[in-house]
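Here is the promised in-class demo. Please do not try to memorize the tokens; focus on the logic of going from shape to residues.
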């Protein structure tokens, strides 16, 4: 196919008034959520869509700034001229063209992800096949697609322990498989939080703890002893996993913690490449590996990681914190992955259920957002991603300059 156009749009979903969340030693302010929509067009008039990862950590590798606008600039100034008028036989040919450009690792991984997803959307439409079918055809395993995927609710950030318990109870009514939250109130309050949540939800819901907060609290960050003690004590409340309890690049600290506590650990979203995910899996430190088609070279890169997990003592459960377009992309990957079924569903505040904060663009990006009542998502069996992107969002959610979130640390 001949690529004729690559376009990216930065959008913002403002939060007014901005939300302030207090953690031990500081405050986190959330002003908006940003999103980048990438489109690829071919000479035959086909259009593929993709959500871009565009994480600020990847942006910082390349720019002084770290905004979604910067991501769009790279697509416009570097990627579009590279891919325009190229005739490619398959998706990896596009990977190769981008790999030849001098762009730092994580940013390149996220750019390739967006192009990979959009090209899979096009190929699916062209072959009249949903992406999960393309993935099953490409892989060595013979398996039937699993289109009905249980979701766990990912919410809970910096509130009094009672607030987490109340949110979990509100979400339990939706039938979510689990509830994930971000602690960071100090070791004693973190322990009280999980106790209250367990008391509230009984054994109806799994509890996952996203502990990346523990090493992001400035001089209040927990010591290795505190991390070990908490991670161990969480087993009393039957924690399903503890996620990123130590800095993600510290694989050996992960291993030591897993060995010392026996508590199931999760990680991988911060890895810069599929190779990084595989290395983390090989350490044996994580029970759950969290790749993301928006971060780790798309379906091609993540499909490779899924295969790596097969037969190994680790379950692939995608990371996802974004819109329904990213959700459905990760869902296609899981539908084609034997041994995986669970999906992360970020809960944003709506009139229907509690959540972190309002992010209406997360649903408005699709003409028909997913109805997740019942705690499940049914992967569409229409061609490509199988969804219609709502292009009205391009005018309804204009990009707003500036950082989406700010951390303020108390004076020592
Ligand atoms: Mg996480």
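The designed amino acids, position by position:
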């Amino acid at each position: 196919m001949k690529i004729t156009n690559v376009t990216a749009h930065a959008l913002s979903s403002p939060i007014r008034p901005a939300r302030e969340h207090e953690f031990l030693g500081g405050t986190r302010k959330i002003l908006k959520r940003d999103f980048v929509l990438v489109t690829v067009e071919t000479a035959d008039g086909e259009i593929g869509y993709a959500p871009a990862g565009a994480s600020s950590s990847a942006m910082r590798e390349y720019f002084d700034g770290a905004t979604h606008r910067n991501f769009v600039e790279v697509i416009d100034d570097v990627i579009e001229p590279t891919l325009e008028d190229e005739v490619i036989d398959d998706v990896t040919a596009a990977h190769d063209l981008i790999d030849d450009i001098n762009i730092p690792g994580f940013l390149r991984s996220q750019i390739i992800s967006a192009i990979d997803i959009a090209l899979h959307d096009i190929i699916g439409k062209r072959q009249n096949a949903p992406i999960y079918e393309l993935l099953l055809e490409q892989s060595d395993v013979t398996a039937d697609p699993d289109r009905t995927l249980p979701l766990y609710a990912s919410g809970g950030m910096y509130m009094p322990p009672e607030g987490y318990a109340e949110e979990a109870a509100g979400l339990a009514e939706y039938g979510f498989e689990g509830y994930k939250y971000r602690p960071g109130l100090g070791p004693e309050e973190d322990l009280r939080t999980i106790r209250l949540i367990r008391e509230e939800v009984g054994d109806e819901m799994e509890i996952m703890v996203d502990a990346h907060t523990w090493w992001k609290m400035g001089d209040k960050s927990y010591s290795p002893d505190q991390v070990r003690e908490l991670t161990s004590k969480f087993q009393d409340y039957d924690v399903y996993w503890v996620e990123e309890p130590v800095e993600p690049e510290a694989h050996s600290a992960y291993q030591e913690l897993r060995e010392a506590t026996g508590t199931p650990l999760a990680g991988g979203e911060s890895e810069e490449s599929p190779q990084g995910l595989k290395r983390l899996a090989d350490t044996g430190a994580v029970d759950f590996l969290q790749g993301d088609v928006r971060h780790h070279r798309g379906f091609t890169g993540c499909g490779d990681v899924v295969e790596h997990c097969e037969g190994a003592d680790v379950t692939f459960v995608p990371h996802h914190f974004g819109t329904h377009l990213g959700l459905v992309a990760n869902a296609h990957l899981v539908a084609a992955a034997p041994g995986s079924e669970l999906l992360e569903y970020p809960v944003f505040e709506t009139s229907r259920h509690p959540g972190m904060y309002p992010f209406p663009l997360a649903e408005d990006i699709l003409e028909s957002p997913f109805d997740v009542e019942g705690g499940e998502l049914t992967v569409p069996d229409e061609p490509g991603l199988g969804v219609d992107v709502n292009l009205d969002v391009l005018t309804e959610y204009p990009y707003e300059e500036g950082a989406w979130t700010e951390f303020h640390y108390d004076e020592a």
